[in-house]
Task: structure prediction
Amino acid sequence: MRVFIFLISLIPLFLFAKDLGRFGAVFSILEKDMEDEIHEKLQAAKKDGRLQAFQDSLKKDLKERVTSPRPVSFLKAVQKEREFKVDPSMILDSDIKVPKDDGSFMYLGRKGDLINPLDYSSFDTPLLFLDGDSQSQRDYAKELVLKNPNTKCLLVKGTPGYDKERKIFFYFDQRGIYSKRFSIQAFPSHVTGKANEKLLTIHEIFLEEPEA
Result:
C-alpha cells in the first residue's frame, strides 16, 4: 500500500516534466597524452633529419668548448714584474662540518663565518696561471714543475691537455673561477704559500716573447 501511495505521489512530476532541449555542441575528449605527443615529435624530427642535425651541432659545440675554451677575458698579460700578498680568507655560504668517531659532527665553520683555509692546512700545491699559446710561458711552466712536481698549471688562454714535449698536463681555468678566487690580475702568475703564513704570495712574471 505504501509503495502504491509513493508511485501516485510521483505522477505530478512526470506530468510537468519537459524536454528542455540541448544547449551548445557536445565534443568528445580528444586530448593527446603529453608523452605520446613528445614521442611523435621526436620521431618526426628523426625522420626529416632535424634531430641528427641538432645532435651534430651539440657535439661540435661541446668539442669546441673542451678543446678551445674561451679565454679568461678579465686578465691581461704581465707588463712589469711584481710580487704581492693575498689574503685567501672567505665568507662561508654554508656550514662546514666533519664527522667524528662517535657519529656526531664537528663544525669547522658556520654559514656567514669569515675563515682562512691556511688556518687548517698548508698551501702545498703551487699554481701557475699562464697563456697556453705562449711557448715561453709553457717552457717556464716546465722549469717550475721540475723544481716542484706538485705545481699545477692553469691556462687562461690556449688549448688544455697533455703536453708531450714538456711532459706536463695543462688544465684550463674555466670562466676564470680560480683566477677570481686567488685574485689573479695578469698572466703568467705564480701562486705560492709558506708554512705558518696566513697569506699567499702572487708573483707576476714578465717573460720576453721570442720574435716570430
Notes: The longest helix spans residues 50-67. Residues 3-8, 10-16 have pLDDT under 50 and may be disordered.
